[in-house]
Write a structure and sequence with these properties.
- By secondary structure, the chain is an alpha/beta fold.
- Strand 30, helix 28 (784-793) and strand 31 form a beta-alpha-beta unit.
- It contains 28 helices and 31 strands.
Length: 801
């Protein structure tokens, strides 16, 4: 691997040359480098702290121009560093040494490779070209010769590289328990290419602090993750850590108050906020609980390290202590407000204090707060259970059975008062009559009321009827039903007639690894269908705990479970032997290896193979996955969705066509957004899957008329989506398709956005009696008269124009 080679150097003068197409970059008349290169250097965080344009111009003049083709390797992890690079065109992938894990894709204007040359250390990651790239490289010798001329710039750049390297090492040392909510900070740091210093500067706590102080703090902070509902700080503990929020939201609750509900949050903090400073700087116990609301990403600073740093900055030490005292005073004010009945409105949701004799609040969030002055103080309206505690009121509180509310002083209209008194008198009379009848019945020894054992009316339902009712409830309602009584709980836990379809998609934001484990204990092995759609917090650990006892699952929806990897697919084959329907849409960490492990293990144990498979937006899948489908699923697969799997090419379908076992059962195929497929891929498909009924080629813009005409060989085709296919659809290809004797079952046709369709196509469709559903919207070649003609013909039952 050649890390750097001499290529084009910016000329010492700046004449425009017609044979400079290798760079395709325009050189300005007054500089010896492209102006966009200098602009890119100015915008990069590596040089924003330096703020020395003379230095940037000098290194720009020394840079070498290099070009790379897609998948070319630029630098390799572990090799000696010889240059740093600035991306002028295209994009690159930062990945692991074995190319299995892509950390990030860097766009135009990014910089990479500077840590190695500034600290004379091996490369920390592998970088390969994602598209055709043009980069400007600066060798280590040139950097080392220029930097001594700018000592202030050298100090800042070394600060930046040291901070970034320190954070990168700490992130790589995070254990699995610290990586449960989002992608690890290792990936995030590589993607953002920012040190801790850049992130800390966005936090008001550190604004206007000296450069040396920020550098020292940046070297001390540790990255940390918390899952939703995790308790970060507990009230009363002696704190030894200071927290700075990078991403996510936390809430503060359980302030020391005799009235305040400990579960009622007082405030919410988000990115740029901090907490924990009161205990660290003032040596006081934690004044409140702090709990994660969303997945939270933090920088954590140990108290010992922080005191060590600020001891070298006396003026700053006083300033930070003052800020900590201000934070404590704010909490005390909020505590005092809760005790006085003040309503605090949070950024996300309102907090309404507990109702008492001293605090009455409006039930409407947007409405005004009802003050104490508006409460009637007459003895007739006063609720004795809300009076100050005495011997009498304690007895009343125990004997009072009816719920009361405080009256609001709005009865100024005498007509309203009279009407209310009349209604109250009528209800009072009815109540007396009802009470009299009840006394008669109770005193009659013969007419005793019927006693129903167990849960009262619930005994009237047969278990089969009750199971039908339960199966119509969502999962959260089922859990609530189980809390009604012991019998309800036992029925939910042990009945095999319920929970055969478990849909957790409505609770997707609440499904963490811990929640998944608890849910698995409730449902057991009863589910036959399981939906975890949009449950993007669940990881491989939580998923494995959930499915370990689900032996009877036949269909599973894992759409947008972003954190699941190939490891989950490996476990899925063993845990769910009867699985035949699987949705992996938008599971972007799934690769060819995971698909192989799933299918191979099912074959090894002689389990039923997949019949329906969704892989849309799984962009890591390649033609190898298509080969695995040929090997294991060609006889069973009935439905396949590979929408937006852009790495699947014609060669993948060639594997299908070359197989001796065609996809005879395949009826539905979605190729939407597979924009790199050509006519040859459709030809291979027609040969491999002759019984296709439903085919989507939407946005397959590389196709031509030839691809559509080849569909004539699909006699079972009933539905074709060719919307926005560019040049693939024309009057001629549609005429050839509809006039074919073999295509007699085609009833649904989507031609939306096909620019080559004209009125001639409408005439062909009108002569075709078997089209029932047609979409010709956004077709500029079809005239208004032709649309009116087809609307008036009443031949098409479902028409979109």
């Amino acid at each position: 691997m050649i890390d750097i080679r001499k290529e084009t150097v910016w000329p010492t003068t700046s004449p425009r040359s017609s044979n400079s197409s290798s760079s395709s970059l325009e050189i300005s008349d007054d500089r010896s480098f492209p102006p966009e290169l200098l602009q890119s250097l100015k915008q990069h965080s590596l040089f924003q702290r330096a703020k020395n344009e003379s230095f940037l111009e000098k290194i720009a003049c020394c840079m070498h121009l290099r070009t790379y083709s897609p998948r070319d390797v630029i630098i390799v992890e572990g090799e000696p560093a010889k240059a740093m690079f600035f991306l002028l065109r295209g994009s690159v992938d930062v990945c692991s040494k074995d190319y299995e894990r892509i950390y990030a894709t860097l766009p135009k204007g990014s910089c990479f490779g500077e840590i190695g040359i500034l600290y004379s250390m091996p490369r920390t990651a592998t970088v390969i070209a994602s598209t055709k790239c043009i980069v400007a490289s600066l060798t280590a010798d040139e950097v080392n010769s220029i930097l001594p001329q700018y000592p202030e710039v050298e100090k800042v750049l070394r600060f930046e590289a040291e901070e970034r390297l320190t954070l990168l090492r700490k992130s790589k040392n995070l254990n699995d328990a610290d990586k449960v909510t989002q992608k690890p900070l290792t990936e995030r740091n590589v993607e953002d290419f920012r040190s801790a210093n850049n992130l800390l500067q966005t936090i008001p706590y550190f604004q206007n602090c000296p450069e040396e102080f920020l550098h020292s703090v940046s070297l001390k902070v540790e990255p940390r993750h918390y899952a939703p509902n995790d308790l970060i700080l507990r009230k009363g503990e002696q704190g030894n850590e200071l927290f700075f929020i990078i991403n996510g939201t936390v809430e503060i609750a359980n302030i020391d108050s005799a009235i305040n509900d400990p579960f009622t949050p007082v405030a919410r903090l988000s990115a740029g906020d901090y907490f924990g400073d009161i205990s660290v700087l003032l040596n006081a116990p934690r004044p409140a609980d702090v709990k994660a609301v969303t997945p939270i990403e933090l920088y954590v600073l140990n108290k010992t390290d922080f005191i060590d740093v600020i001891s070298r900055f006396p003026n700053l030490q006083n300033h930070l202590k003052t800020m900590a005292e201000t934070s404590l005073n704010n909490l005390r004010q909020k505590k005092s407000g809760l005790e006085k009945g003040t309503v605090f409105i949070l950024p996300v949701s309102p907090i309404i204090p507990t109702q008492s004799s001293a605090e009455i609040t409006s039930t409407s969030v947007a409405g005004p707060v009802i003050t104490l002055d508006s409460i009637c103080s007459t003895t007739s309206d006063q609720d004795p259970t809300l009076l100050p505690p005495t011997t009498v009121t304690n007895v009343l509180k125990q004997t009072e059975t009816r719920r009361r509310r405080a009256s609001v002083a709005i009865w100024s209209d005498p007509h309203l008062v009279a009407l209310a008194n009349k209604n109250l008198k009528t209800k009072h009379d009815e109540l007396e009559k009802s009470s009299l009848k009840e006394d008669i019945v109770i005193n009659d020894e013969i007419m005793q009321p019927a006693r129903i054992a167990g849960d009262g009316c619930l005994e009237l339902f047969h278990e089969d009827i009750l199971a039908i009712i339960i199966n119509y409830l969502d999962f959260l309602s089922i859990l609530r039903f189980s809390t009604v009584s012991k019998r309800c709980r036992e029925f939910i836990r042990h009945s095999h007639k319920i929970l055969q379809h478990v849909d957790l998609a409505p609770l997707h934001k609440l499904i963490t690894d811990n929640a998944a484990k608890a849910i698995a204990e409730v449902v057991g092995n009863r589910p036959r269908r399981l939906s975890l759609s949009q449950c993007f917090y669940i990881t491989d650990d939580g998923f494995e705990n959930m499915i370990k006892d689900m032996k009877n699952v036949e269909a599973m929806d894992l759409n947008s479970c972003w954190l699941l990897t190939d490891r989950s697919l490996n476990r899925l084959a063993e845990a769910c032997p009867h699985l035949t329907k699987l949705d992996l849409s938008n599971c972007r960490k799934i690769s060819d290896i995971g698909i192989f492990k799933l299918l191979d293990r099912k074959a090894a144990y002689n389990y039923p193979q997949l019949e329906e498979l969704r892989l849309s937006y799984c962009k890591k899948l390649t033609d190898m996955a298509m080969g695995h489908l040929v090997e294991f699923c060609s006889q069973t697969l009935r439905s396949l969705n590979i929408q937006r799997c852009t790495r699947i090419t014609d060669q993948g379908f060639k594997k299908w066509a070359d197989s001796t076992a065609p996809f005879s059962s395949l009826q539905y195929l979605n190729l939407t957004d597979c924009s790199f497929l050509t006519d040859q891929a459709v030809a291979y498909l027609v040969a491999a899957a002759p019984n296709l009924k439903d085919l989507s080629l939407s946005f397959c813009c590389a196709l031509s008329d030839r691809a559509i005409e080849s569909l004539i060989s699909l006699p079972q085709l009933t539905s074709l989506d060719a919307s926005f296919c560019g040049a693939a659809i024309s009057d001629i290809s549609i005429k050839q398709l509809l006039s074919s004797i073999s295509i007699q079952n085609l009833s649904s046709l989507n031609l939306r956005g096909c620019v080559r369709i004209t009125d001639l196509c409408i005439e062909t469709i009108l002569n075709s009696v078997h089209i029932n559903q047609l979409n010709i919207s956004q077709c500029p070649g079809i005239s208004l008269e032709a649309k009116r003609l087809i609307q008036g013909s009443n031949i098409i039952k479902q028409l979109v124009v």
